[in-house]
Amino acid sequence: MKTPLRVLSTLCLSALLAACSSTPSNTLGQLPSAKYNDLDKLLLQASKKSDNQAVGLYLAAADLAWQQKDILKARDILTKVNLEMATPAEQIFAKTLEAELALARQQAGAALEALNHASFQHLNDMPLNQQVRSQLARAQALQETGKPLAAARDRVYLAPWLEGAQAFENNDLIWTLLSGLPNSQLKNTGEADLDGWFALVRTTKAARSLDQQKKAITQWTEQYPQHPAAKMLPDALRQLQRLEVTQVQSIALLLPSQDPNQNVVTALRNGFFAAHYIAKASGAATTKIRVYDSSHIASMDAFYQQAITDGVDLVVGPWEKQLVSQLAGRAQLPIKTLALNYADAEHNTPKQLFQYGLAAEDEARVAADRAWADGMRRAATLVPKTAWGDRVLTAFTQRWKTLGGELIATQHFDRPAALAGQIAELFALRSSEQRAKQLESTLDNKVAAQPARRQDIDFLFLAASPQQARQIKPALTFQYAGDVPVYATSAVNSGSGEVYPELNGLQFSEMPWFIESDDPTRQHITYNWPQASGSMGRFYAMGADAYQLANQLEQLTLIPNSSAVGLTGALTLSPEQRIERSLYWATFSNNHIEQLKEGPRD
């Protein structure tokens, strides 16, 4: 069985530090020895010892199997160890190994449970190698249960005891964990190293161009010369500092002047120009923007020919889906193009085409990730009977099954009058009622039985509008499923600031625009266009991010796994050159939107 690399890093680190192990106090006992290399001989030796003498040998055998990547063998040996006969040191060793094996099975919740064993109150009295091993397992478990800040804090604490490749890897992981957090979680704590990391994330987030990012990193290292990250910069930032990109000199903004959704187009255009003027005011090198009307072009070929004549380096647009699909079907394009929508086909698009939009599919994948991190494993889904609902359901299902989750039941809704019955069917309430009737018939007597929902559903994934959600959430309670956690897309949030009490407790993904109201770009836009404070704010945010992407496409292309911090999310580039968004997680609580900072504690 293949062991994940992230687990192997912990395994290698424990082997590296074995040489610097020491013996705990006599009252805590000794850790199992790491001197053995023959598993069969070790197991034979253990079988000849008394119970309390065999514990350490069996633990050493389980660890040796783990080091040899035989996870099933390690689990089998470990489950046979009687921990009641073990010393506190052996218990810490055993529970750490149990956590590592759980992480290898993608059971981070079980790993945290193992690491909460009472013996860990003595962890600080253990040898350094055991402390590091246990803390690394905990940090990984926290990360995989949706607690990035707690995981980063543990890794910052560990950093002074790590060396070489492990130290570099640790810094890379700290950066990954913290750079995805909103500024509201990057407040100074009084812990010098952690606050230094926060400052590095804040300053790079505030920079909207490559040159600004490079200057921000240099200024930070000058301000924090002794910080661990200054001495060992995360790989993503090292690559960014070395990167040399060609500055875009002229952009063609291709949008329609006549469209059924012209208010959306106007918001996109205003957001785009707002970001341009903000960048210009900050002293950043800005590009020349030429505006073209897609409502009146004879053909895309004619447009590109005109754009080439005008000296355009990059096209931003079109927005119309049919035009994006036309471009996606071509073998190549004459100019690099950032389309503001997605074509239906995902593969074999020209290498010059990049696609960006507010795809609900991104949000469905975020919901799957969040539910999995929260320990959910069995899902039910409720989506509208529309093409949009089908796309969202497909995206959720694919990600959920990739994670290892099980899809128990699905319902498509279209008529409010049928909603209660569909929810009852989703949770098998009709079967419960039928069983009660059969029992009454058998006993020939009235039975006082309350319908009960099926118990094999951990949560409900919901794709619905605010109006639909206001009907669905109370209907769940009415149909005896009010205790089922609901994970939704941002479609349930009207964006108007109006929050309905019926939706309290519903969790959903949301873009930074609606979470970080103190963002300077957002404040500038909402001051000049008050309507951007409402639901149309999504498209103002998209327009502003489109301007940023226009200047960072090459950066995203050249640095794998890099991201741009935007108002619509953390923006990354997929292998199909589609911009994907990582979003924040929020809930309706006490009639307002509350950001959920970390996943629930196990």
Q: In short, what is this structure?
A:
The chain has 602 residues and is α/β, with parallel strands linked by helices. The protein has helices at residues 5-16, 39-47, 51-67, 71-79, 88-104, 108-115, 128-144, 148-158, 164-179, 192-206, 210-223, 228-231, 235-242, 262-281, 300-309, 321-328, 360-373, 387-403, 419-426, 429-443, 466-478, 520-528, 537-558, and strands at 250-255, 288-293, 314-316, 336-339, 353-355, 378-384, 406-413, 459-462, 486-488, 507-510, 564-565, 570-573, 579-582, 584-589, 592-595. It folds into 3 domains: 5-144, Serine Threonine Protein Phosphatase 5, Tetratricopeptide repeat (Alpha Horseshoe), CATH 1.25.40.10; 250-357 and 519-579, Rossmann fold (3-Layer(aba) Sandwich); 361-510, Rossmann fold, CATH 3.40.50.
Characterization of this structure:
By secondary structure, the chain is an alpha/beta fold. It folds into three domains: 140 residues, Serine Threonine Protein Phosphatase 5, Tetratricopeptide repeat (Alpha Horseshoe); 169 residues, Response regulator (Rossmann fold); 150 residues, Rossmann fold, CATH 3.40.50.2300. It has a seven-stranded mixed sheet with strand order 7-6-8-9-10-14-15, with helices on both faces. Strands 2-1-3-4-5 form a five-stranded parallel sheet, sandwiched between helices. Strands 11-12-13 form a three-stranded antiparallel sheet. Helix 18 links the parallel strand 6 and strand 7. Helix 3 runs antiparallel to helix 4, helix 5 runs parallel beside helix 7 and helix 10 runs antiparallel to helix 11. The radius of gyration is 28 Å and the shape is globular.
